[in-house]
Queue: 4 jobs
Job 1
Amino acid sequence: MAGRRQGFEAREHEPANYRLRSDVTISSATNPQTGTKQYYVKSGETGEVFELGEEEYFFCVRLDGRVSFAEFRHAFEAHFGARLTFEKFVGFADDLVRMRVLEPSAGDAFAKAASALIEDILDPEDTDPRATPFRRTLFDPSRLFDALAAIAPLGRALEFSVLPLLVAAIAIFAHNTGAAIGDFREIARDLTIFVIIPVAAIAINLIVRLIQGATAHRAGAEVRGLGVIFVFGVLPRFYLDENAIRALDDRTQRRIYSASLKTRLFIGSVTMILWAALRPTGGWPAEFMSLLSHLAFVSFAWAAIPLLKNDGYTWMTLVLGQPQLRERSLAFLSMRLRGKKPPSEMAALDQTLALLYGLATLLFLAGVVVALFIFISVKLEGALGGPGVVIAFGFLALSLAWYLTSLRAAERVRRAVRENMRESVQKGAAAGGAAVIQLAQPAKAPPRAQPTAPLKPTKKKLWLRFVWSGLALAFLIVLLLPYRYKPGGEFEVLPNWRHQVNARIEGEIAEIFVKEGQWVEKGQPLVRLNNWLLERQLAESKAELDRSRAVLAGLLDGATREEIAFAESQVASAASRLGFKKTELDRSELLLKEGITTLRAVEAKRSEYGAALADLQVAKANLAVVKAKATEADLDAARAQVRKFENEVAFRQEDIERLNIVAPSSGAVVTANVDLRAGAFLKTGDLVAEIEDTRTARIVINLAEADLQYVKVGDRVQAKPWGYSGQLLYGKVADIAPSADESKAGRHVRVVTELPNDDNKLRPQMSGYAKVEGEMMQVWRAYLLFFIRFVQVEVWSWFP
């Protein structure tokens, strides 16, 4: 099989088909001269005695027909420090078969069952006998870990820096608790948190495994596998092949597993410090550091929990000397729940601790599952509504399916192992094999070989040292070179001038003479409106003006002879009618005295006489008025009436002229789809179009408040818009806002820059990134300025 190692395939997980013969006796003796151990084997079939080397002895005591080549190889390489391939293993074992020391066990039922099981569910490249269907080996990281282990001095320096960095991170969090939690909540509000958090967690997990693998290689354990395990069958997490690590002594193992915990603390502390240093400048780097810091510390807390099989649990079991603490506690809890009695040799304190630990483990796992489900369901329900709850229940169902699948696969393996053990015991007893079982049991591992002293550096390594020294010196020189600090920020293009053209009179759009993007000159027609009501009102106002003018003219000219004659005729007619009414009244009074008429009839005649008398007086007054000249008051009133209607006609005429909307100044029409508004009705004040003079663009840069001290009016500005990323535009700082503004990214100050824009490339609302050419300083100071500010302000604030 082509792969990362020759002979590396599924058969490596199958039980090796070799075991010690039942009639073989193994013995050992110590050479009195050299003090070394010598091993002997006696064949029960021929009676021959063979002296074995340490490798042959290792084969004899380790191979029992059940151990797989993967397990055997890891133990062999950890003990002897030499690589063992499958072909060498088979050749070595076949030699011992020919010597009548080992025998093949190809007919073992367990071998067949385990082989079929491995082919069905396991990754053929996973050398770990604990493999599950959700583990997949990616590659052999030996060379990568060797390269990382080569920089051990740097690793030791980072290890010693964990504690002071952690203290600094705790101090930062204590002084900025609200801001730290608020920034993380701001990130968590977005639904993309379900993508960002897993990606960041995977990155942290990968870094931790790389550091742990490098530490293991430095300690002499050659890790042969870096793979991925899918938690809940979906979420990937990296893992290491730990067989070589388990072959080391407990103290070394504790150092390796503590390295993963320290790495998480290191990442969390460094990112917390970077968050505090970058936060004044704003932007996504500070948000990303906040996210990584929280995730790293949460990852540390999760890995350090002794109730889960994580690095913290493994470290604790090594300290306590209880490698199967969790399994034994859960088994004891299960036994007590079923009503079975505890083992007599188990102390009361041990029983209590086992019960408490097993119960705490189950309660913790249940609490985590419930809390995780509630969090996911609430988030999804808030973002998606009902479908979000359905998705949450689907995720819960998939997680349950993953757990049951893993549990079933593990149970199949355990069942096959138990059946094989029963068969082995039965076969051994039938053949009088008590001695066989005793001989087939693995002996205690001999003392591990001590690492050999490092070789003296070769000339090539000395040459590389000179190269690295030269590069370090060159890097130091570069750090001391002068450099112009260029603080920057995102910018937005605003027009240098903008004029809104609004309707000054209501009306229907009849004609449109321009379109979006068209350049217009001052006074050029834009839109013509129609308003029939306004035209009718203008005609009425003109008629009223003509009438008032005629009245004024009549007052100035006086009455005509015809008017006087008409007034005199009205007086004569009224006098004649009065005489007639007087005669009728006298006759009625005479008849009343004679009793011929009634008093009511007389009263009616008296009323008619009074009315005729009043008409005569009115006619005489009208004649006097007609004959008299107009007064100044009458003339002033008539003139005022004329002026009123003249102003009204002029106003109506101006309204008619306002129906023709023209450009108030030169510029480009920037209103979208202005040419598609024909027929629309505009009210007074409604926007018709916007005109902008884009020949000069104004860029507003959102500069972090911390960089304001390095910027002044007149400094040159370099700008790159997103729409023209290949071009660098230049301008100068024209103005700096007198106050800072608050935004999601922090406080910033608006820096205004004007740029020539004759080609109209910079359009309003376009954005990009701009830098202001500030002060000159050394390279190291320019690139560490954010950290210098952090020390000068944040750290300074810690001390009373």
Job 2
Amino acid sequence: MAQTNLPTWLQVGEKIVNIQQRLGNGAFGVVYKVKEEGTSKVYAMKDILCLNDSAILNAIREASTLNRISHENVIAIVSVGEFRDSRGSHMLLLTEYCPGGSLNDRLARPSSDQQNLTWMTQTAEAVAHLHSCNVVHRDLKADNVLLTASEDVKLGDFGLAREYIALKRASVQQDDGSWLTTYTQYYMQSGTGPIHWVAPEFFRGHYTEKADIFSLGTLLFAILERDYIVINRKAIYGAFVSVPGIGKCGVGFAMENFDRNIRIQFSSHAQGSNALQGNVHELLKYNPYDRPTAQEICNHLRVIQENIGLGQSSTDSLLSVYITTEITPPLYVPISQINCQVRTMAMMQQTAATSFPTTFQCGNMWLRTQERLGSGAFGVVYKVQDLATSNFYAVKSILCLNASVLQNAVREVEMLKQISHPNIIAILGTGQVNGTQGYLHMFLLTEYCPGGNFNQRLPSPSTNQMNLKWMKQMAHAIAYLHSRNVVHRDLKPDNVLLTATEDVKLGDFGLAREYIALTQIQGYAQNIFTAYYMQSELGTKYYMAPEVFSTHGYSAKADVFGLGVLLYAILERDHVITGGKAYYGAFVAIPNLPERIGLGFALETINRFFIIGFSSSSDYFGSLQMLIRQALNYDPHNRPTAQQVYQSLVAIEQLYALKDVLCLNASQVLDAIREAVTLCQISHENIIAIKGADRFVDNQNNLHMLILTEYCAGGNLNERLARPSSERINWKWMSQAADAVAYLHRNDVVHRDLKPENVLLNRRGNVKLADFGLAREYIALRRVDARRNDGSWMQMFVQYYMDSDVGSPYWLAPECFTGHYTEKADVFSLGLLFFAI
């Protein structure tokens, strides 16, 4: 039993509280009544002395569970904090305060039938809410049901609560319950909870959420019967039976160890109608799948409440309420009935590859298997075609021969259903089929990515623009996963797919895990939590973070390291050959080792101070190289988050072009000012946009005019014309260039230097007309010409404004060589541009 001695004043999160009195203690902590400094608010504070990893884990799990569930009959968490003294670390959980005490204390005093029914309904609703959130309480007893000042129920003490993510969802896929049973044996097989309130199956070591239903039955029985035993001079209320030679013991213990057909009896002084007492018996059935669900219990109790409010009596059996609902498969099968074949992953995938059916159904679609796309640790992926529409999809087939494989399959399905992002593969359906050799396959239908995987794409060259797009999309997908408290754990080029337009789709979530409390609990305990949740060495060795190879556990920052390896692979195209296959990533050479090894493994086992190098060919973004090095840091705490990586990549993409004009005389100053002014006065989607202008004097006292414009990652048209382009692209370039020149002329500006080098392309390949150093206004030109048809006025004006031989001689109009020309000189240069395209 935990004993703690705390200071009078403590900080819990952002709140400073004063300890008022000790309320009680349990297996995992001591509870105090506390008051917030400067206010009249009163809270309950649970102090958990964490002397080992298990205690820390339970504290964090309890805080995590309370933080993500919200219900009027479940105790609300207010804040979480940490305190250290000479004995160790204390986790402090600040929750709402219930002045009514516990239901166990309250049952010592009489209460009305209406009050009893209210307690029963509210407790059932709290349990139903937990189960709808995939949480099993595992410690339902009268001491853990608290009462407010108005005697409303608040279910508390979640130290033993556990998640069972796919428990209920898996059950709808199989009528005999075998899938679900295998999964629950994996999730909940430890003995927990006080033996007086637990279900019979608890003593066999494998149970589901229906164990909560049995414990709820003992609570409802205690409310109506007020039966109790005395432990340490304290009355403990529950459902007990007398066993010869032993005395009174919990009904679940008696059922499992003496007689499974025991039917607990209500005495003559018990409260509640015969029908209500009969309904309690339904909860205390030996077989778990003979018990109703928590929601069905709520529905019936509400009916009874309504009937009492109308002055009627309820004679309905609880069975009459839930017999009309959809009957779910059994939630429990004894271990002796489970016959799982044990195979290696390699054997399983080999079997899966040869036994998956050629034609199968998913929802309303009939699909035909076209070809095998690849395989991994947990499945084989096929390209399939819809027979009705001819559309292509991908199917991941998972051969379910043991609990571990089933667990991963169900987890992957549930995870993909809960996430939606443009750069994450979308799940379109799930199902199960019997293979040609009689094996059961669970399958996931997803979108098909014709661009293949990234490992196949990296041998081919790509532009800087494309590289940066891929990097941003990967980082955005991973940042999204982490915002949903999901860690991928297997980031590598093989798991990054490409669409027909070469957009990223992150796939293969077979190793992904939730880390619910990671971002919600800070401090010392965070590392212990990650060590419990993610301590297995999983992933692909070339891409794993250093901490994954250690025994200290790891967090979402392991994904950031994997992301760093991906970014490095895109930039460097570094690879090793293993088994005849090229693996792109980040590798280091170690003396006396025949092959280079992955950076993460080298950092953990050889030298944590390795700094990955970059070749000169990739040296086009110094800030990008720095970002990659940060992501590949040995210490997870020194790595950025995935969101920070994404934001940095966005910032890198938002580059500008800076034109530095050295002004050695007044004429050059005038030209620079004129260019800046011209750009400020015009605005068109196909003309380079000015962002700012300023002047600068260097150490030799020379004046520089600085003109900041948008950056065009696609380079200039002169460079682009060296590569082939489609007729559609050619027409786009010509029309956009013509639109830009027409806009200039409408605004009385002549460019005077149109050529492919001054036509820039942004990252989408759209035209941006640039370099306005020779551009001139000809405001009065057209007006004079319009007033006089003989040209004499225009001739004089042109000789004044545009009589210099300017521009590149290869691109000038004929009249430019005679010394008098108009805006039509631009049109001639535009024609040469079209001819070049």
Job 3
Amino acid sequence: MKFKRTLLAMAVIAGTFGLTGCDEETNNITVTHPNSGDTLPPVEEGDKPVCPPTGDEDCDDKPSTEKPVIDMGVHVPVELDGMDVTRYVNPFIGTGNLGNTYPGATTPNGMVQLSPNNGSNGWEYISGYYYHDARTSGFSHTHLSGAGAGDLNDILVMPINSRSDFMINEGSATLNLEASHFKHQDEQATAGYYKVDLLDYDITAELTASDRVGVHRYTFPRDQKSEIIVNTGFKLNWDYTSDSFIRWDKDNNRLIGHRLSDGWAASQKEYFVMEFDQPIKNVRFAYYDKETKQYVNAPADFTEIGSIKGSQTYDAINDRDVFGKYQYARAYVEFDTEKQGLTVEAKLALSSTAIGNDGTNKAPLSGAFLNLTEVANKNFDQVRLDATNEWEALLGKVKVEGDEAYKQTFYTAMYHAFLGQTTHSDLDGKYYRAFQGRNAYPKGRPSWGKEAPLVDDIRLADANNDGVADFTRYDTFSLWDTYRNVQPLASILTPNALADVVLSMLSYAEEEFTPLDAEGNAGQPRKGRLPEWTFKGNETGMMMGMHSTPVIYDVLAKGILDARMTELGFSQTEQDDIKARLINAMVTDARSGSAVSWISEYEKNGWVPAQLHDVEADAYGKHSPFKDSWTASYSLEYSMNDWMIAKSIALVFGEEDSRYTEFADRSNNWQAQFDFGGEPNTPWKGWFKARDYNGQFIDKNWVDPITDGTAGKNWRPDMFNWAFSESNGWQYFFSVQHDMHGLKDLMTQVDRKSNPDAKDGALFAARLDEYWSTYPDRNAGDNQFPVFNTGNVGQHVQGNEPDLHVPYLYNYVGQPWKTQAAIAASTNVCYDNTADGICGNDDFGTLSAWFVFRALGFYPVNAGSIYEIGTPMFETASIDVGNGQSFNVTAKNVSRDNIFIQNATFNGKAFNRTYLTHDEIMYGGDLVFTMGDTPNKLWGAAADSTPPDTGIGEFLHADSLPAGAR
């Protein structure tokens, strides 16, 4: 069910932000556009929200107040034992359009994501499944949720019989796949369970999972030949199978094998053991013939296929694992259905370390064999119930009551927020060590044919270095996205797991590796870096920033790491050592000589300089005239990272540590990108812009001092701009989360250059008003806004990360009622309960976690212990914060119309602040709002109600600050 878009909030925003035709006497800020040829494009008539009520009169676009019921669309709702809040989870939300989520079975932060694959390449198939493609080519065991780049989909399993020969062969010869059509009305999914009927074969497929094991159940009809295909050669998008191996262990009715791959993850290892509950009749093998470019059957007497030392197909001449003849291996596992139908259950355990020891030779269980014990002596239904119970325990920590359709969106969003930070270590704490990607290889990955060898360095999740595993090693860190809200949500609901995430980050930084040159020759060993965008033990180098730092600061500031280390039995000396190592890892990354992009230039200049290409760009680089396209974004984000480092140093060593002063001062480098004056005769003063090596801001008339070239366009904040990541000058303007008061003060001084009587924060508020009421220029000649620049309310993009915090910023200027309107409007353009119901890439739950916080009524604009008040969505929300305590949010009279806070109390006392602290939440308490459909402009408006000033260090433009500012 789609929520109606034209809600009251849109109307209020129109009046609030001074659009043409709206006139509110109480709004004393007048927004004018610069009087020049660079004026912003007009808002199309059909895009203009109507004016809001200014009193008690009604508004034409108010939605119906009729409560919608839970609607699974064409899908049959899942009703299974143990379900309470999980009955609201609809994993199909986000599987269409741009969400890039998957509907299959997994557990919270599980290693296995067992989910269907359509069998096609393409950006819409990043997760393996695109809702608007009603074909299935099987079910693979690893998937990315909401990402914008493609990999994984390891070890594809597909049940077939002789009733059909339907094949998919799109995008690559190796995608020659047995497949089936299906209907969405025959699909079911909830947290930890998926079911579909494969129409071409009349087979019912069901999936569930434990943390490290995918469990299949296939119900076959009577047929002369029924098989389960195990495909280690299946690959999608950026992925590439570098080596595969499958062996039929006849004596134990199972398969063992591996899939090694190179792609976005440059060195991925997946070892597996797959056991069946029904006797295997026969196994035939197939491989991809490179000469004929088709799959062919291996000799009938083969009991294994692929490349492993001692195997039938090992390259004994070279005595090493190579891309050999028998690759992209498939096994066709046959079961006897000639006389009657049969239900087959199969369990497939994964490991990054090894197939392992099965315990028969008196050696301890290890690798995939060890992980298989998670589901020992359990059938499909028991594993499914365990998965349901895991999700119930997590999602049930928050109980909400109110709008039923919103409840479905809410619990699905919570579910999506815990699909990342996936388990990487085996049950014994062992894992495949970090592969540092571009740190190890000049071009980001090894040259083809120079993949890492099969036998690799195996590490132990041992934070205190005593030789005993003590934490769960996690991976899949999409940190440019998730630091904003996914990890802060985990800090409330799963603090121990978040502490283990930080210990995992530390292990990434400390794991030594030997870098290779472009020819694969070894260099000197060196240590790695903190994660940037990692999965399956691989650093990809995607996006920018050092965004492990806000996560580390978060667990330090909230006492989460201390509590976890105490629980693990670490001595005080060991705890102090671990925290010192974390500080050292952050500081090392942030100084010249590290593998962090442009950090040397940033440290030298205080900003990352932009320049045009000085040599012919490669195919990827040609999309931009600049050598690196995001230089202003780098500077803004590194400045925020510096703040996190400084604050962490202060917590661990105190402010007297010289490194605190160093990074506190560097945290003000965001100001180095701030152009006070603008080019002569242009109106754009007081904006963030790119700068070159000479310190000149890149505006119209700019000439690159390195190449003498020009960028070829004027600068306007509404245009797509290469200085900013995936956005424009508007959408990155408020990216100073760590010093929002500093930005407000700096803008006040800009304002006073032309108006000495300008009030504190007036330009900041006016800039916000204009942000919400003007639109990006998508008609510029070099418009390259990404496809996920969606969910627009004015310049605001709810479908991408840079400005997710912006709706909350009116709290800084005493206008929280505008924040409440902006939040409601942002919600309405991005979320609904359909497959298309997430308006952009969910990025491992980032857009979803935004919705969770939004619904609860508060949000973490910056890492640390402060949450900004927004507007609650439910009549009641109760958060289990542990130790028998709960934090309860009540919203009296709340509805889709009643979005404005009239008054509030906290633990029975009047509450007028527009922020909460983490301790106030975790100690438990009762926050009660009274809601209405018109703003109370007095609530939260006092100067002492705004969020606290968090700026530190020496302000670069201290002489330009208004009186009373930092």
Job 4
Amino acid sequence: MDPERWQRISPLLDALFELEPPARELRLAQLREEDPALADELQTLITLDESHEDFLSEPLIPPLSALRAGGEVGPYRLERLLGEGGMGQVWLAARADGLYQRRVALKLLRPGLADSNLRLRFSRERQILARLAHPHIARLLDAGISSDGLPYLALEYVEGEPITDYCRNHQLPLEQRLRMFHQICDAVSHAHANLIVHRDLKPSNILVTPSGDVRLLDFGIAKLLDSDAPMIEQTRTGVRAFTLHYAAPEQVRGEPVTTMTDVYALGVVLFELLTDTKPYRLKRQTDAEWEEAILAADPQRPSHTVLRRAEDAGADVHALRRHARMLSGDLDNIVLKTLSKRPEHRYPSVEALALDMSRYEAGRPVQARPQNLGYRFGKYLRRHRWALATGTLVAVVLTAALAIVAWQARQAVAEAGRAQAMQDFMVGVFESARGTPEGQALDLRGLLDDSLDRGNRELALQPRARAELLGLIARLRIGLGDYREALVLLNRQAGVLETAADAPVSLQLESLTQRGQALRLLGEPRQCIGLMQPALPTARREQAQLPPQVSEFYSQLGRCRRDNGERQGARQLFERSLTLRRDDRDDVGTVENLIDLANLQADAGQSGAALQGYQQARTQLQQKVGARHALMVEIGSHMASLQQGLEQIDAAERSAANAFALGLEVYGAQHPATQSLRRQLAGLHIEQGRYAMADRELREAIALQQGRVHAGGDPAETKRGASELGRLQRQLGLVAWERGDNATALASMQHAVALARREEDNARLADALFDQARLLHAIGR
């Protein structure tokens, strides 16, 4: 069968094996109507699989002849069988000639492995291997071929169990597992220093003694067996000199083996130590499927693997989630670096891997992820506590970290010089903030302004780097709620990108997306659509290569369409984005799109379905990301609005209060999202008759809003701020009236009327005059 035909058949065959026999027959009948020849081939393969399930597992070289305890192989007397595998048997044995009393693990190889050069290689290599003196390596003591042609290897006998079994059976915590992994790295590094590559590292070759010491077995055995024969010869014999589940891609392809081959195998072992499972999710577990995964599939993140187990777990679900959080981030990245398909993308040595593990354990930045500012700054904050005046700084720093991580991930090796210049610049900006006096809050807005000025000077001759800087600062400004300032920066970025000949599509899409977001947040959805719509064909064309950027583009354009009343178009974009984000395992983005779809249901009056959608988003956010995420603020606000509409006032008040408390923590009091929730909570207090609580929240909201209005700035923003301030004054007046405080009520109404007149807002003026007239009539004036 030619490869092209197999590429078509393979996924269909996998899908058929997933079905129960009746459903499989039905599907085959459907395929037969479309392509009879294809259906016949599939039926033949299924029949072969059912009738010859084990035919591939039989070795093509003869098995060992019957051996019994008491028999002799070379100078060794066999005592008992320890194990048996595809390459042969392992016996506990002792010297029959009494040369020494030590027991050995005698590995007896199948006769078919003894090619004409084996004896010569044994003689040449065993002296080198015998010099491997390390406390965590079981030494190779002897190697030879018996008088009847049976190859044997005598190794130091180690009483213990495979490291994965030991850790699982003793329920070892993460710290102890990592300590053992360091012992493995020490041993492998020692062998590499002696120019010996293991080639077959796996848990069964890494034993833990009853005292808890790690011992590595079979060092150099694969090298002894390797006759440098072509891959076709290895295939013919049916035996590999490595174990497939732990093999690196270059081993599967039959390419030369290097020390980085052992690095890959160590990555698989580390993955198992962290997760108790292997890095690839396979359906049929066949050798062919394993080879395909090793060569082409992306390994899972260890933290995602543990989270997936948590979804199916019972009493241990909370412990599994805690464990996943411990793995998320640095350990995920360390493991994925070791499992890179190309050797040059892995750690260059086992020492480098061990050093990165030590950095992780010390809480310092690791090399397995880009050394970007946000990541280094986060590590710095954990080691040196700055005075944080509000939750705003925390939210912005986290946003900065995520933004710059995304930026750094886009850099290619060929751009290392420019990337380093940008990195050095940003690190310098934040390092300069270390001069903030102890106990004094850091001025984030001032820091961003300073970094902008510095960037204009230092990056003037690097337009792409300057464009990236403008985008980062704009994103942080959006996080602070400074939407107008962000739009100014983004418009400037667009101008710079026009002059940057090397600006990639990813950066152009990000720039458009952020400009659209800023316009939407400023209440200009039509302008957002006019800006982003022409780039939709580009986004569609690039979605396979740039899923994070394109999914965000779809989401922002969908929100602009929703705000413009185009619900069907918005839904299509949200669903496209959701598919991309689920495929890309973007947990936060997935939750965002679940919220978007629930918003559309709420717009359509489907309150029950919308409430269920928000609850699903909340549950997924709690499970995959955490309960203190900023999206929880948005979800709580939406749920409160729906519950209020369904006359579930108590539930609405609880939802709004919880969201408001979290908003204060992650955003700070001045952020638009927090201010909106404060007003929402005040309205619910009024509906519940809690006028004193409503009065307190409204006065706080008025004080904050007055500060924004008096600060001046953009005229349109000032007008909107004054309009909102007038509405708050009217609400405060009505609350004071209900409480019998007529003087405060009248003063608040007069403020509202004056603001509406000043801003020439006729609609607001009419509402304010009506409320004022009602109040005057009620008090007899």
